[in-house]
Amino acid sequence: MSNNNSIYYNFKKLSWLLAIPLMFGVLITSCGDDSPVSPQEQLENAKGTVQGVVVDKATGDPLSGIGVTLVYEDSTDEGSQTFLGSTSSDGSFTFRDVPVTENATTNGGDKSNPYMLRLDASSLDNYRDSYLAEIDVVFESTGGDNGAVATDMVSNIRIPLSEQAVTVTGKAHTNSDKVISGATVELYQQFNPVINGDNSTQTEMLVATGETGNDGSFTFEGVEEDAQIKFRFIDESDPANVIDHETGYHTTPSGEESPSMDLGVVSAFEEDRTGAFYITNITPEPGSDVGTDTSFTYTFNRPVAENSWTDASQGFGNGTFKDAIYFEDYGPKKSPGDIEFDVSWNDDRTELTITPENLVDANEYRLRSRAAFDNNSDGSNVGGPLSSGPIANEDGNFVDEYGNDLSYNASDYDKFEAEELEFTTGDNQNKPHTPSLSFTQVANDTVDWSSGSAEVTWDIDNSPAEVKEYEVFISKNGGPYEHYETLDKDALSILNREVTQTYDAVGINVSDDPQFNNIKVTDVNDGALSVDIKIRAVSTNLVQGDFSDPVTFEDVKQPVINSASINNTTESTGEVEVNFSELMTKEESTNPDNYIFVDDNGDEITSITIESFEVTEYNSGTEVKITVADENNLDNSGGPEYIQVNDVSDLAGNTINTANNGNQEQYN
């Protein structure tokens, strides 16, 4: 074909067009700027020329008037390009501006090249009407920069065709020499265009179909000369003797006036397909750890018979195998209600897919299908949890297309693991991260034995296992740790909730920062001198992480005198009651040298002599009753009188606060 009798089409979808001889052409070009383009960019956007010739294989004579279609199927969304033309008087054809792929270069082609060639030889006598081949187009450079320039890229294709003159005969027997009658016979032929001198491109074409006679004979007329042919015999009428066999290739004769080819007896192997019906694969495997959105697929070695029992299109409660399938929840969590699921078959009914809908993570389950797969000898099915007994079976059991029950002799799975399929969800056994704790005082407050607060902070991110919750443990005065609180991680980070609770006077506070959690220690009203806090994370699979290093809150606040007064209930002696803000050291709080009575001028009242002490401890602090020798010496100065305390410590060793007269209180 000359340069003027080709036409170019651009389709979004691949369209096969019947080629007809064209005596005109359309040239389509694109416009662009004159910006310099690198050799690599030129190659990526290269266009080449595909030119060829169609000849008679035996004589080499050119064949004119043959329609030629070349399709380039683009792997992008740009669509496919189809080039149409016909051979000229010298058998030639030419297509220009054909895309050059990276594989279709001088380095050799690739079978994945997206080029399809079709010939229409219906205008010629004694040749096949059409040929179709996926061809390995290889472009070679005829000039330019070592073949890397986008121009001068050419692919030469020589297509030899043979006349249809050969009669092929034969007889089909089984490998045990039994006649194969009434079987389908398919005739295949190789199509071999020669591209740049390489004839390795081979496409197998189905060219004819026939049937064996009563004696197993078959005949094909009009087979091409000097062609590579093979046969496929198909007979599935007897499940015990299924035939689906392909022969090797034979070369047809050529050069004779009426060539013929008698293959004699052609052997085909039989296959007994009435044997065991079994499960070949279960996905995911029994015992797997899966996600909560997983589907379970059973694959069988043969299609499952379609009947009233195996009908997956029916809803639940209609007496099908779906009613005999169910999921059991083994905890430690529990799914909300019964596990709902869908059931479906693939097109050839060799795959059964069961898709549960409301699994929860970090849980154990069992998919029970035994009642669906088993059949009773009385023609009924075993039934399931939705049935009160055997489910009526009027039209079939769970069997293959030949009526075989499911068995496990040939399966890689035993009956229990397949029909009582155990699995877990999200079973990541990695430990979650170990929190790293720090703490700060809140405002200007400090922790003492009865009040004060401090914040504990830890990061909740970057864990090797998803965190479900945090467990808080406390220890007082170096004693054993006790569980205090469990904090839900999602509630802390998403809701920023404020939590206020009391546990042995330890309160919890969550800060406004969603990335951190905070704990306050308050109201340690059982006399603890120190509180240690440690925290560990628990994963969604209930795997406990390692404890953090503890942080310690110690009593660092100095005690003060809350009040002092004369006890007027005594008759014979004078008594002053002094109330301290904390539990005080008894030895120091009962030492007379640590108490001084002073007047309003700050002068010591020397007439008051201490005789004894009585100490009482309360939740609110310590009460010390001081008995003096002569009650008349109390409240005798004519003005305010004070008791001053020095060198008295609380249980943590903090001495009484002397700032702002915290160690002095008026008692009269």
Write a concise synopsis of the structure shown:
The chain has 668 residues and is mainly beta. Helix content is 4%, strand content 39%.
Question: In words, what does this structure look like?
Answer:
With 668 residues, the chain is mostly beta strands. The chain has 5 domains: 6-161, Immunoglobulins (Immunoglobulin-like), CATH 2.60.40.10; 165-187 and 208-271, Immunoglobulin-like (Sandwich); 279-425, Immunoglobulin-like; 438-554, Immunoglobulin-like, CATH 2.60.40; 561-666, Immunoglobulin-like (Sandwich). Helices cover 4% and strands 39% of the residues. Strands 11, 13, 15, 16, 17 and 19 form a 6-stranded antiparallel beta sheet that branches. The longest helix has 7 residues, at 489-495. The chain is elongated, with a radius of gyration of 48 Å. Residues 1-35, 104-112, 146-150, 377-394, 443-450 and 493-527 have low confidence and may be disordered. Residues 374-394 are annotated as: Disordered. It comes from Fodinibius salipaludis.
